[in-house]
Amino acid sequence: MSRSRPRYKDILKRKKDWPIVNFSQNKKTFLDEVSQHVFDNLIQSKGRKTLHEELEMTIYREKQRVINNPWRVDPKDDLTFWRKIQKKQLSVKESKDKVTVEKEILKEIIDRYCKEIVGSFNKSSYRFAKRITTFGFARLLNAARVKGIKSIFSRQLDLQDQIHVVGEPDQLRKLAKIGTIVLVPTHFSNLDSILIGWVIQFLGLPPFIYGAGLNLFNIKILAYFMNSLGAYKLDRRKKNPIYLETVKEYSKRALEWGCHSLFFPGGTRSRSGQIENSLKLGLLGTTIEAQRALISDNVKDAKPIFIVPVVINYQFTLEAPSLINEHLKRTGRERYYRESDAFSNSKKITTFLMKFFTKKSDISVSIGRGLDVLGNYVNDQGESLDQNEAIIDIKDYFLSGGKINVDKQREHTYVQILSKKIIEEYYKINRVYSSHLVAYTAFKMLERKNSKLDLYSILRLSKEDLTLDYEVFKMNFKKLRGVILLLNEQGKIDVNEKFRSTADESIIYGLNNVGMYHAKRPLIKIKNEIQILNASTLYYYHNRLEGYGLEKHI
Amino acid sequence: MALKNIYKATVGVIGTGNFGTALANLLSEKCNKVLLYARSKEKSMQLIKTRKNGYHKIADNVEIITDLSLLTEKCNLIFPIVPSINFREVIKNLSPYLKPYHILIHGTKGFDFDKTKKSHNPFKESDSQIFTMSEVIRQESSVVRIGCIAGPNLSKEIAAKMPAASVIASEFDEVIELGRKCLKSDRFLIFGSNDLMSTELCGILKNIIAVGAGTIEGMKLGENAKSLFITRGMVEMVEIAKKMGGKVEPFLGLAGIGDLIATCSSKLSRNYTVGLRLASGEKLNDITNSMLEVAEGIKTIEIIYEWSKSNLIRIPITETLFKIMHKKIKVEEAHAYMMKFPFTNEIEFLN
C-alpha cells in the first residue's frame, strides 16, 4: 500500500445521499420534466421554420441516418420507428386537427430522444466497475511490476502510483459539498472517460453523470464502464434542433437537480494533439442557464454551480497515429494521403492497459481552481471573487434594472466569456513533461532546418533528412526549458518534477517516454544523433506545447 | 421631447470634458436625471456655480457630483468619458463600487499602454501590452456588460443642437438597446454593432489620420491631396486593425469613414488642429502644452509606431507622422516621401 500520498474519504458516506441516486430513482419524473419542457420550448420558440417543416426535415434526416450511417448501439427498432412516424406525418393532411396531430408527433420524437439519451446508473454495477478500476487494475499492476504473477494479491502498488492527481483536489472536494460540480476536462484519448471516472472515486466524490459520445458505446468494454458510471449518451450524428434542444434540457435539468456532471467541452478528442483552443458552447451554456434558473426560481436550498477545468497529461496517446492522420487529412486535403489506422476496439484497449501497467509511464491529472459560471474564481466557501479577490454575487450578472430576466443573447455572450476562461485555465494548469519538450524541440528544429517546406512536405522527408545533431538539440532543449520554467514562475504553465533535473537526464527521460507504446517510436537517440522515426506522431506530441509562444525562442 | 419616451432612471457620466458634457446634455433630454461626475473639486464647484462648461450650458436635470459611490449606487448605466491616459486609474477607483449588474459605455478614443499587464487573451501575442478601453474595464472591474460610443460627434455641433449620429457597439444586445433608449432623439441617431473591439479601433486609429490631414491642410496642398491622404489613411487604419484582430466592416460605417470625414476636415477637431500646427513649424511640446484637452492622436501615433516594430507591418503614414512629431524629418520632406512611396494595389484588405 502506498502511504505517502493522501487517501481521500468519501465526502458522502451514505449512498442514498448521492445526487445521482436520487436522480436515477426519480428518473421517470425527471424525464417527464425534460420532455415537457423541450416540448413547451419548441412550441413557443419562433424559429424560421414552422413545426410542420421542422418535423419533415427531422424525419427525413433521421431516416437517412438510419439507412446510411447505422451504428451497433442504435436501437433495433430505429427504422421501424422512423417509418411509423413518417407515415403519421404523411397522414396529417387528411386529419381534421392538423396541429394536434403534429404536436403529438413532436412529443413522441422528444420522448424517444429522452429515452436514448438517458443514462442507466445502477448502484451495484457502479460498485462493481469501481472495484474493477481500483482493485482489478491494482492487481494487474502488482503482478506486472512487483514480483510477477504470484504477487497478484499483494497491495504494494496501486493506481495512484502511476496516476498523479495534482492541482486543487482539496478545493474540489470542498466545493462538491457546497454546490454542483461540472468537471470540464481536456480530451485526448478515449481512455479519458475511464481515467476521470477513477479520479472522481479516488477523490471520494459521489459519481458524476457523463455526457459521452454515443460512438464510445460501440466499444463494449467502454460501454460497460460508462453505463455503470452514469453516462448519458450524446449522438453527434443527430443535428436536428429537436434533438439538440433535448440534450441541452437534459443537461440543464440534471444540474438543477444537483447532479454533478462531466463533459468534454472540446466536443471530441483533440485531433492535432494541441490543447483545446475552442470549445463547444451548447452544453457549456446549460451551466449558465441552470444557474440563472436556480436563482430566479428561488429554489429552496438551491446549490451554486461550479466549473472545474481538468487537464489530463499523457506522455502517450493510444490513438495518436490515427488522430494525427485525421487532423492532417482535414487540414491538408489532397496534399496528404495516408492509410489511417483502424479505430481501436476492446482488444486493442486491453493490450494497451497491459502495456500501460507493465511499463512505467506517468500520467498526471491536473485539477484546476473552481470557477463560477462566468469564469470567476471561487474561494473554498464557494463565493465568487473578482480580480481584486473581492466577493461578488453571481446573481448580479443576471439582473437588468434590478430584476432577474432571461436574455438569451446575453447568456450566449456569457458562455463565450466562460469558454475563454476555461481555455486560459487549461494552458495554465497543463503539466509539461520532458517528453513533450523533446518532441517540441525536435520538430521545431526540423521546421527551421527545412524552412522552405510546408508542413506536409516536412512530414514526408526521407530518412536521412530526419536526423538532428545531439549537441545542438540539447542546447535548444535547455533554452526552451529555461523559457518554460520562467513561464512556470509566472503561473502560466505547470511542470513535472523530473523536468528540473540535468539536461541529459531530462532528455533521456523524455526520449524514453514520448509515445513509448507506439509500434514506431517517434524519436530516439543513436550515438550523437537524434533520429526522428515517425514525423507525424512527433508532430502530434509537439503540438502539446503550441500556444505558449515558445517558437520565438528557438 | 415627448414625455412618453423618457427613460425613468438616473444615468451617469464620468468626465467633464467637452464630449462628456455634450453627452450628459444629450442624455438629459431622454432620461429622468443625469449625474455628471467631476474628478476635481474645483471643476465641480465651478460647474455648480456657473451651470456652464465652455460653450455648453448644462441642462437642469444634470447634477454635478464628486462621489463615485453615489454614482454607482444611483446609476446602473454609466458613461466613462475620460482621456485614455487617465482611464485605467478612473476605473480602478471606481472598481470597488462596481457590480456585475452595472453597464458601462465608454467614449474614449485612445489606447491604454501598460507594460505590466498581460492580455486576457492567450492567443493575442506581441501586442499584449496595448489595450482598448473595454479591455481595461474587464481587467480592472467585475463589469462585463460593456459598450462603446463612437462616430462623428464634434462636441460643439452637438452643443449647438445640430443633427448627428453615433454607433453603440457591444457584444451584448441589451447594452445597445439601453444606449439607444437613453440617447436616440430627433436630432441624434443611434446605430448598433456587435463588434466592440473593431468599433473601438475605428475611433482610436482615425485620430492618426486626423493629425496627418491637418498637416496637409496646413501646407495648403489642396483637396485632391487631402482626399488621397484620407483614403490611404483609411487603408492603413484597416491594415492595423486587422493585424490586431479587428474586422473591416465597422470601418466602412459611421465609426470609421463617418468619423474620419468629420475629424479630417474640421478645425473643431483637436487632432486635426495638432496637424495644422505641426505644419506651421510649431514644436510638439508647445502644441500639447497649449491645448486645453488631450489630443489622443499624438499618443496613438507613438503607440502604433512602437507596436509596428514587433508586428511586421508597413505603416508608412503613421511612421512618417511619428518622424514629423519628433523632428526627424520636415513636413515638406515627409510629403515628398509619401508621394514616392511604392504603393501597389489600391485595396487589398477586402480580399
Structural class of chain A: alpha/beta
CATH topology of the largest domain in chain B: Rossmann fold
Low-confidence stretches of chain B: 119-127
Helical percentage of chain B: 40-55%
| Number of beta strands of chain A | 16
- Total number of domains of chain B: 2
Explain what this protein looks like in three dimensions.
The complex is a heterodimer of chains A (554) and B (351). By secondary structure, chain A is α/β, with parallel strands linked by helices. Among the domains of chain A are: 120-315 and 362-429, Glycerol-3-phosphate (1)-acyltransferase (3-Layer(aba) Sandwich); 431-553, Orthogonal Bundle (Arc Repressor Mutant, subunit A). Chain A has helices at 19-25, 27-44, 51-68, 78-91, 98-117, 123-145, 159-162, 169-178, 192-202, 220-228, 241-256, 281-296, 320-332, 346-358, 408-429, 434-449, 455-459, 470-489, 503-513, 535-543, and strands at 163-167, 180-185, 209-213, 231-234, 261-263, 305-313, 363-367, 384-385, 391-392, 399-400, 403-404, 431-432, 467-469, 494-495, 523-526, 529-532. In chain A, helix 11 (241-256) crosses helix 12 (281-296), helix 12 crosses helix 15 (408-429) and helix 16 (434-449) crosses helix 20 (535-543). The longest helix of chain A is centred in the first third of the chain and has 23 residues, at 123-145. Chain A is globular and about 85 Å long. The model of chain A is unreliable at 143-156 and 334-344 (pLDDT under 50). Chain B folds into 2 domains: 3-194, Rossmann fold; 207-340, N-(1-d-carboxylethyl)-l-norvaline Dehydrogenase, domain 2 (Orthogonal Bundle), CATH 1.10.1040.10. In chain B, helix 8 (196-218) runs parallel beside helix 10 (254-263) and helix 13 crosses helix 14 (316-325). Chain A binds chain B through residues 277, 374, 376, 386-388, 390, 392-393, 396-397, 399-402, 407, 409-410, 413-414, 416-417, 420, 423-424, 427, 547, 549, and chain B through 9, 76, 95-96, 99-101, 120-123, 125, 139-142, 144-145, 171-174.
